[in-house]
Structure formats: structure tokens, C-alpha cells
Design a protein that fits this description.
Strand order of the largest sheet: 2-1-3-4-5
Number of domains: 2
Distance between the termini: 52 Å
CATH architecture of the largest domain: 3-Layer(aba) Sandwich
CATH topology of the largest domain: Rossmann fold
Shape: elongated
Largest sheet: 5 strands, parallel
Order of helices and strands: EHEHEHEHEHEEEEHEHHEE
């Protein structure tokens, strides 16, 4: 059974080219011309992965992504964007996108990224991870503290924290973390990673035994002191 791709792109010529290319590669493709139509089609028909432009009429890609994440936390979302500002890219990742591709791009690169996202979307058999007084549930993206309640993480935050927890006490290379969530190591991803690490430190503040350390020039290490 082929994977179903929802392609949301207001440029009809580009949409046709992408759709035909993906179909030749064995994907089932459904198209929408704006974010509002894309949201309706996702609700009605679902998708295994969404490819969406950012700048679109009626509803832009970011707003569509926010609403889709309220419905489904796990479906992979790849943005196509002409924007290169770090703030725009960070906004996309914070609302739960998995990857982005700057226009113009080569169709082969798009296909490679789609296939990589679909492979990574296979769920972990064990979705719960513990460190100190915290438990991370990947299935709900909830980080729970024994006494201070729970907070819902973004998809990117949950992925990064899981990687740090399973490697607790060891340094995780920054490049490894960037490739895990963004499939690249570049200045935009590096700045985004720094921002997400800062947020994770804030979330983990209720357990003084936990430290999220910056190993300068290498990566990050999550450490928990044992009494």
C-alpha cells in the first residue's frame, strides 16, 4: 500500500510538477490550493505526510500546521518556503513541523526528505522515558513531574529530550541532534537547537538534581545526580 501525501501549494504549476513526480515514485498524492482547503482535506481523508507551502491565501501554512497539530501530533509535516529568516524557520519548528525545504529545490531532494520522514515516523515500542522526578511520554508528548504536574511539549522538544534521556550521562553531539529532527547541520538548525535546549532547561527546573550541560563545541549532556 502506497503512502498518502497531502500536498498544499497555491502555485498550480509547481503543485502539478510535485504531484506528478511523487506519483511516479509510487506515492498517492492529494492536493489542496491553500491552507484552509488543506486542513479540510486532512480532516476528511487523513495523510501519512503533509508537504505544505508557507505563504498561501486564506490560511497560510503555519496556521494550517498549528490546527493540524491540535488534531494529530505525529503526522510528519514538511514546509516549502521561500523565507530564509531564522525567526520564520524557528516558528515553523515550534508549531511542530519536522523539516523544511527552501525554494527553489530539486525534486530528488524533496523525495529523499519525504522518505526519511516516513521512516522516522515509526513509533517507539516503549514510549515512556524517566529521569529524576520526570517522566516523558512520547505518545502524548507530555512531560510530567511527580509534584508539579505536566506540560505538553512540541514534537521537536519531545524528540530532543528523548535523545538526551536515553543518553543520560553521555554527551550527545550537536550535529547528531540536528540531523535527528531537521536532517541537516547548518546555522539555522544550530540556532534553533540552542533555543530548544534553553526551553528544555526551563521545563526541567523543578528537579535540582538534573543538569542540562553545554559541552562547548561538542554538544549537550543531560545528567542526574544520584544520592
Amino acid at each position: 500500500m502506497s503512502n498518502k501525501i497531502l500536498l498544499v501549494e497555491d502555485d498550480s504549476t509547481l503543485s502539478m510538477i510535485i504531484s506528478e513526480t511523487l506519483q511516479r515514485d509510487g506515492f498517492e498524492v492529494q492536493t489542496a490550493g491553500d491552507g484552509e482547503d488543506g486542513l479540510k482535506k486532512f480532516i476528511r481523508h487523513g495523510a501519512d505526510l503533509i508537504v505544505a507551502d508557507v505563504m498561501m491565501p486564506r490560511m497560510d501554512g503555519f496556521e494550517m500546521g498549528r490546527r493540524i497539530r491540535q488534531i494529530n501530533r505525529n503526522v510528519p509535516l514538511l514546509f516549502l518556503t521561500a523565507k530564509s529568516e531564522i525567526g520564520d524557520i524557528v516558528e515553523g519548528f515550534e508549531l511542530g513541523c519536522n523539516d523544511y525545504l527552501k525554494k527553489p529545490f530539486k525534486m530528488l531532494e524533496l523525495i529523499v526528505r519525504i522518505k526519511a520522514l516516513l521512516r522516522r515516523n515509526v513509533r517507539d515500542e516503549d514510549n515512556k522515558f524517566e529521569i529524576g522526578d520526570y517522566t516523558l511520554d512520547l505518545s502524548t508528548q507530555m512531560l510530567s513531574h511527580k509534584e508539579n504536574g505536566s506540560i505538553e511539549l512540541s514534537l521537536i522538544e519531545a524528540k530532543l529530550l528523548k535523545e538526551l534521556i536515553v543518553n543520560a550521562g553521555r554527551t550527545v553531539d550537536a550535529s547528531t541532534m540536528m540531523h535527528l529532527v531537521w536532517q541537516r547541520d547548518d546555522p539555522y538548525s544550530r540556532n534553533s537547537l540552542h533555543g530548544f535546549i534553553h526551553k528544555l532547561r526551563h521545563y526541567l527546573r523543578y528537579d535540582p538534581s538534573i543538569s542540562l550541560l553545554n559541552q562547548r563545541g561538542i554538544g549537550y549532556m543531560l545528567a542526574a545526580k544520584r544520592e
